[in-house]
Amino acid sequence: MYSLTCFTIAAILSAAGVSARNSTSECAKGLKMFVSRGTNEPMGAGETGKVVKVISEQIDGSDYEAIRYPASFENPNYFLSVGNGTRLLKETITEYARACPDSKMAVFGYSQGAQITSNNFCGQPPIWSPYSGIDVTDIHGLVEFAKPLPKEVTKNVVAVVLFGDTTHRKDASYNRGNSTGSGIYWRADISACEGLGNRIRSYCDAGDPFCDVNMEPKGNPHLEYVYHYGNEVVEYVIEQYKSGSSNSSGTNVGSPSSPTHAPIQISGANGILSVPVSAIAIVLLVSSMM
């Protein structure tokens, strides 16, 4: 377990790194989409942008906003980057929901971006909260920040899509893909996300070293989710939007499926998690100290 001093230092550094957000978004007449890119992808929507652009073309009056967080492995380190992103996404969705109470939303996250997304919808262990700038002496603040977004904020979220989530849990009912293991930071409590029913999907394939750590890495599955599942996600989100299932809490059903159309073409991985897989050992070592 980290010492209080270490946590205090982390909280100070995180507070300094958390960016202020100015809400400039207009209420979308169609679907408002929020996208959190993967580690080391350039600022913007990253690979997931190829999915949301297609959705925007299919649903009139839709647009998307990329969360402007570090998405870094170093400078700042992964933990501070996740803390920054979790806070920014929380603020962004909350502000939009309050300003646009009748607007439907969809939220996407890839890799580290999937972790900050699931942090907001599933909740997170309070031990991560100091990296979001919460004073470690503020126990109430730590616990409150770790809670999932409230229903009054998420009631109009029609879809949450996670690609290669590091907090993936192998027994979640909302899983898609062919993985059999859990992620580096697998969640002990996924009840809040289970409660979203068919409004959430988490894609993880076998051999992905970040979301399926019990398997030997095979190729680059962590980089291929948009290619393999892009069209499936497009169809899913559009159907969720049209069906008005924003308040649905039904059970996820069905087995993992493959796209029925030609895969969305990708030009490359845009640097998603372009760190040596051996670096995972460092991350796991730090994690084991928590």
From TrEMBL:
Keywords: Disulfide bond, Hydrolase, Signal
Gene3D superfamilies listed in its UniProt record: alpha/beta hydrolase (3.40.50.1820)
InterPro entries recorded: AB_hydrolase_fold (IPR029058), Cutinase/axe (IPR000675)
Cleaved signal peptide residues: 1-20
One of the record's GO molecular function terms: carboxylic ester hydrolase activity
PANTHER family listed in its UniProt record: CUTINASE 4, CUTINASE RV1984C-RELATED-RELATED
Name of the protein: Cutinase
Gene source species: Neoarthrinium moseri
